[in-house]
Amino acid sequence: MTTAKIGGSTGRILVVGGYGSVGATVTSTLDTWFPGRVIPGGRDEARARQSGGVRVDVSDTDDFREVLDGLGDVAVIVLCVEPPDAGAARICLERGIHLVDVGATRRRLDAVAELNDLAVDAGATALLSVGVAPGLTNLLARRAHDAVDGARSLRLTVLLGSGERHGVDAVRWTVEGLAEPATAPPERAALPGFGTRTAHQFPFSDQHTLPHTLGVPDVTTRLCLDSRPLTGMLFALRRAGLLRVARRPGARRMLTGLFRRIHTGGDAFAVRADARNGDRHAAYGLSGRAQSRVSGLVAAYVARELMGGTLPAGVHHIEQLPVLDGLLEWLGSHGVATLRLDRRADSGSGAHGHRKET
Ligand SMILES: NC(=O)c1ccc[n+]([C@@H]2O[C@H](COP(=O)([O-])OP(=O)(O)OC[C@H]3O[C@@H](n4cnc5c(N)ncnc54)[C@H](OP(=O)(O)O)[C@@H]3O)[C@@H](O)[C@H]2O)c1
To answer: 12-131+292-332: which CATH architecture?
Structure first.
């Protein structure tokens, strides 16, 4: 296995979307570890300059190349935005620049994964599935998978706080997901801090990558919100096909604006991964506050590891590198005080045992 070439000890870190909801945490956290070497970027020149960064548009490949040429010494790029395709990732990797990608869209992540040979040849590392979901869901899934000695099925459940001020890009992604029909029925799951909730299949990318990375044939991810009435209403609208209009750009913009104004709940979130192998069952759960901030902390942690220059070259999802497993404990001890990690495991259908880990 080739180890990434650029140690990054002297290079800088470009955080694209670095003043957005996720990116602002990435920028500020990395700045405490690498003072003066973190450059936030975005399309708004005034905001970019105000935050001490650069204007950059990753959907315009010529512009992106020019910005990188101008900066000259970028060792790691953190993409806190979802570009339209894998073009920006290709530009990073062919230059031997490491990449952290918080994106959650399956098709684009698959396209970035296809750049593996390019990354290996350039001695660069790309880390995908970085954030809460995908991200922490993938890490919990791997722990649950290991606990049953190889899961045959994985059930992932994500609860998001409808009171959190999610970024425009994240809300747009959710609206796009609501336009897709469910591929599996709803299920009930006990979520740490929230009791038992009904959650609905949702197109998170983790359920598409985990069958390849862990070899689990059957993976489904479901979503609910902290507000039960809002969850019920939203998924009833989806069942009735009324949210398919969000496939049209105008309707998508309108719904994104509308959803950004709804703040009925809190900012707490929870995720849970259930693994089954015959009559063996293990479940790991985690809860915290402010998923945008936690997604940013996850991305910052991964970027710091990349700056160390010891991760293998190539394109990897977060659960494929065991060295990143410590991230779960790091989050628990980081001062995001309400984060906790639980483990339940049983054999057969008997009552769950419960052991608190952090
Ligand atoms: N994996 C996870 O768990 C997870 C969790 C949350 C979010 N996300 C993903 O993270 C991304 C950001 O979410 P967010 O909530 O932080 O959204 P946000 O607050 O809207 O931030 C997006 C940022 O990117 C900038 N931007 C947008 N398009 C750009 C482009 N073409 N080139 C350069 N900069 C651009 C925006 O600034 P300008 O408009 O000024 O350019 C803004 O600063 C989304 O793709 C979302 O799906 C993933």
So the answer is: 3-Layer(aba) Sandwich (3.40)
Query: Average pLDDT, whole number, for the chain?
Result: 89
Domain range summary for the chain, segments of one domain joined by +? 12-131+292-332, 136-291+337-347
Say what angle helices 291-308 and 21-33 make with each other, to 10 degrees.
40
In angstroms, what is the span from residue 262 Cα to ligand 1's centroid? 19
pLDDT in tens, 268-311: 999 999 999 999 999 999 999 999 999 999 999 999 999 998 89
* Spacing, Cα 83 to ligand 1 middle (Å): 9
d(Cα 217, Cα 211) in Å, to the nearest integer?
5
80 lines ligand 1 (CB under 6 A): yes
Quick check: CB of 53 below 6 Å from ligand 1?
Answer: no
Instruction: State the distance between the two ends of the chain, measured CA to CA, in whole angstroms.
Output: 33
pLDDT at 215: 98
* Per-residue pLDDT tens over the stretch 37-72: 999 999 999 999 999 999 999 999 999 999 999 999
**Nearest CA, atom 4, ligand 1:** 131
Say which amino acid occupies 104: A
Q: What are phi and psi of 57, to 5 degrees?
A: -125, 110
pLDDT value, residue 92: 98
Domain with residues 136-291+337-347, CATH architecture: 2-Layer Sandwich (3.30)
Pocket test residue of 61, 81, 92, 132 for ligand 1, highest count of atoms within 8 A of CB: 81
pLDDT band at 345 (very low <50, low <70, confident <90, very high): low
Beta carbons within 8 Å of 222's beta carbon, 6+ residues apart: 155, 156, 157, 158, 184, 186, 187, 189, 199, 200, 201, 202
User: Does residue 36 have a pLDDT over 60?
Assistant: yes
Question: How far is residue 75's CA from residue 307's CA, in Å, rounded to a whole number?
Answer: 7
Residue owning the nearest CA to atom 46 of ligand 1: 170
SS3 187: strand
Q: How far is the CA of 355 from the centre of ligand 1 (A)?
A: 36
Return the best residue to mutate from 19, 63, 105, 169 for the ligand 1 pocket (most ligand atoms within 8 A of CB).
169
